[in-house]
Amino acid sequence: MGIELKKLSVGPWPMNCYILISRQTNQSVIVDPGADFEKILEETKHTEVAKILLTHGHPDHTGALKQIYKATSAPILIHPLDASQFNIHIDIPITDGSVIQLGNINITAIHTPGHTPGQTSFDLGDNRILVGDTLFPGGPGKTWSPEDFTITMSTMEKVVFTWPDETEFYPGHGNNGKIGTERSAYEEFIKRGWRKDLYGDVAWSE
Fold first, then answer.
1. What is the Cα–Cα distance from 104 to 124, expressed in whole angstroms?
2. What is the pTM of this model?
3. Residue 112 CB: number of other CB atoms within 10 A?
């Protein structure tokens, strides 16, 4: 039995909060409680909230974290690099390859740095991956320095675009995408090359 995935649009930006539900045990996991904690709790009220996962530590992804934590007492899982940088309480540290159990399903943490040092994606094991702000349809997540953009592009080469074309990615904002849909634009971007001082909001079409 697989994982039911709910996508909630929360906050003024807005951003995507995800609810993962085990059909076997009726346990749930909340991913990136960015805002609107009552809306998130409403979506999980018939489940046992077992864990709170954070893709990264930016405030738009953690704005409702304290309220959700207080309401559920579920442990918070985040990469230590982001926990320390953004001063976020951490119950269970996750790093590349960490396995998070939900019912009979194993969710695998994949370190995908660049947007933040501890940015982490979550592989549901069925060609669905929650990527936070690692990747969006049309380009990578925002970076704040050329060094960060270099790290992001290394993540794209060594991690993200090694995933199969049929992989559906679920970002922290906006619409879902597919790796196969992004691949040709990404490869063209690589072929053209980019300025050494490039960073910020970058599109593959640049």
1. 12
2. 0.97
3. 30
